[in-house]
Amino acid sequence: YPRRDLLNITCLSEFYSYIFQVAAVNAAGTGTYSSSSSAVTPATTPGQPTNLIATGANGRVSLSWTSPSSNGGSAITNYSYKYSSNNGTTWSSPALTNSSAPTYLISGLIPGTTYIFQIAAVNAAGTGSYSSSSSALKFVTTPGLATNVIGSGGNAQVSLSWTAPSTNGGAWITGCVVQYKIVGSPTWSTYSTGNVWDMEYTGARISNLINGQSYVFQVALTNSQGTGSFSSVSSPIIPGLPAMPTAVKGTPGGDGSIYLSWLGPTNPFTGQLDGNGSSIVNYSYRYSSNNGLSWSVPALTGPLGFNRSPNVTYKITGLVRGATYIFQVAAVNASGTGAYSVSSSPVPNVTISDAPTNRRNGR
After folding, report:
1. Is the pTM of this model over 0.70?
2. For the chain, what is the mean pLDDT?
């Protein structure tokens, strides 16, 4: 088979086309030159792109630029970009746009961070010089997810609170959108706040609800880029009736009684005892000696009078000594009895033995 040799010729101009002839050389001299090659234009890497502009767009950065005035003698097939979050001290690893178009959308950047960008053209000869840096751009997107959505009912209203998202998207939170519906309904209603300008907006009050109906809620937060995704759906909340007491605990009294304590429902905004728009006037309790298979008839603790503290203790008597009980408590207002609390931990109804005496031998 004839041998094929390769020769690299440098220092040619990409502005001209060249033809080539080759002759072999041995000890006797130089042979006859070959026929001329087809015309070839040398290629070098492309020139610099210009007019690089970075703008925010739908949670991504949009880059646009002017293609180089010279493609280096070979068609531009790709572009390479890189970015810096410390004004050019360090740069990301270069990445390809996989397109010859002079535009590109970059995702995966960190909200609230300011970036600069550079772009370079690519052809068959390689990657050209990077452009001048774009103007600095602060990357902003919609807020993250609110979590732990809870609420306290009022008179035809519910006061919601939630934990602020881990990121506000790099911009002030300016409001929220709350969707709510009656439990079992397929249709959501929407409530939107006005402008609030709060970096960690964590509460809203929804009015014009129906007392006694059970509602669920979900929350999405808004900033200058729009509205983020909705949170998980809250537990049901009933306006008009008190919310559930919490921290229910039983402690043996030692005389056949049990001291029951709990924390009454409180307003998430004030931390004060809250009866959902009507004062809590009583508490209802019930107990079970078979781990909740059956419950006693609910009984009332009695009017609260001036005791408006969230912390409540009540002594329950008449229980079977040696039995183990769990307890639940519900708050009562003028609209009725709210939902019963989560059960307490099991409480053994133990008694204290009589004191020993000096009697011996029956005397």
Report:
1. no
2. 87
In one letter, which amino acid is 185?
S
Tokens of 66: 């002017």
- Of 138, 193, 199, the residue nearest 168 (C-alpha): 199
Structure tokens at 121: 């053209």
Question: Interior CA angle at 254 toward 250 and 260, to 5°?
Answer: 20
**What does the pLDDT read at residue 352?**
61
Q: List C-alpha distances in Å: 4 to 7, 10, 24, 26.
A: 10, 20, 12, 17
Q: What residues are paired with 288 via a beta bridge?
A: 326
Phi, psi of 38 (to 5 degrees): -65, 160
Ramachandran region of residue 280, left (φ > 0), alpha (ψ -120 to 50) or beta? Answer: beta
The pLDDT tens digits of the residues spanning 134-155 come to: 999 999 999 999 999 998 777 7
Residue with tokens 């080759």: 22
Question: Over the stretch 167-197, which tens digit does the pLDDT of each residue have?
Answer: 888 888 888 899 999 999 999 999 877 665 5
Could you tell me how many residues make up the chain?
A: 363
* The residue type at 52: L
C-alpha Rg value of the chain to the nearest Å: 39
Q: Are 276 and 267 in contact (CB under 8 A)?
A: no
